[in-house]
Design brief:
With about 200 residues, the protein is of the alpha/beta class. The chain contains five helices and eleven strands. A nine-stranded mixed beta sheet has the order 2-1-3-4-11-10-9-6-7. It binds glutamine (GLN).
C-alpha cells in the first residue's frame, strides 16, 4: 500500500523535503502529493511525516503551543505514523538527556546538539549507506549543517549510514533519524526508503 507523506512545516527547512516527496509522488511511490503539516488536523490519514532541520527548541515549542505533541506521539505509538527526523528533527525524536529541548523520546538513542561547532563549521562528505534494498557499500553525499552527533544508540536501533565509523543515520521500527540533510541532494534513496517503511494496519 502506498503511503501519504507530509512534512512538519512549523519552522525550519521544509521545502527541500517537500520537493523530494513530490518527486516520489510523481514516480508513483506515494498515494497523494506531499502534505504541509501545520496543525493537528493535517495529521489525519497521514502515514509518513518528516520532521525537518531547523531549530529543535523552536519546533518543539511550536508543537506544544499548537497542541500537536500528544497526537503525534499517539499516532506513532499506535503504529499509524512513521517518522523521519533530519538534524533538528532527529534531535526531537531522540531520548531525553536532560538538555533542551525536551525530546519526544521515541528513539532509543541520544544526540548532542551542535556537536561539530557553529554554522561556519558546516561541511559535506561522502557517507557509506547500508540500506537493506541495496548491496555492496554505496556512498551518499552527506550535507551537515550545525549538525548533532549520536552519543548513544540503543540495542534495537540499526545504523543505516556512517561517516567513517560514526553513525549518522539510524532506523528503528517506524522511525528514521539522521544528522545530515539528504533532502539537499537530488538522491532519493533515503526518502524512498522512508516512505517504504511500514505502518501497522489496524
Ligand atoms: N543546531 C540545530 C538544533 O540544535 C539543528 C541544525 C539543523 O537542523 N540544521 O536544533
Amino acid at each position: 500500500m502506498r503511503g501519504i507523506a507530509g512534512v512538519l512545516c512549523l519552522q525550519g527547512s521544509s521545502e527541500p523535503h517537500l520537493a523530494r516527496l513530490a518527486e516520489l509522488f510523481a514516480a508513483g511511490e506515494l498515494a497523494q502529493p506531499p502534505r504541509e503539516v501545520r496543525q493537528q488536523r493535517d495529521l489525519d490519514g497521514l502515514t509518513h511525516l518528516i520532521l525537518p532541520g531547523g531549530e529543535s527548541t523552536t519546533i518543539r515549542h511550536l508543537l506544544d503551543l499548537f497542541g500537536m505533541t500528544d497526537d503525534l506521539l499517539a499516532r506513532h505509538r499506535d503504529g499509524r505514523l512513521c517518522l523521519f527526523g533530519t538534524c533538528a528533527g532527529a534531535i526531537l525524536l531522540a531520548a531525553d538527556d536532560g538538555t533542551r529541548p525536551k525530546r519526544l523520546a521515541l528513539l532509543d538513542a541520544t544526540l548532542d546538539r551542535n556537536a561539530y561547532g557553529r554554522q561556519v563549521d558546516s561541511f559535506s562528505e561522502a557517507l557509506t549507506l547500508e540500506l537493506p534494498e541495496e548491496h555492496g557499500a554505496p556512498t551518499f553525499h552527506g550535507v551537515f549543517i550545525r549538525a548533532p552527533r549520536f552519543t548513544r544508540i540503543g540495542p534495537g536501533v540499526r545504523v543505516v549510514a556512517r561517516r567513517g565509523a560514526e553513525p549518522v543515520l539510524v532506523e528503528a521500527p517506524g522511525l528514521l533519524a539522521g544528522t545530515f540533510h539528504p533532502e539537499l541532494t537530488r538522491d532519493l534513496r533515503i526518502h524512498r526508503h522512508f516512505v517504504a517503511l511500514k505502518v501497522a494496519t489496524h
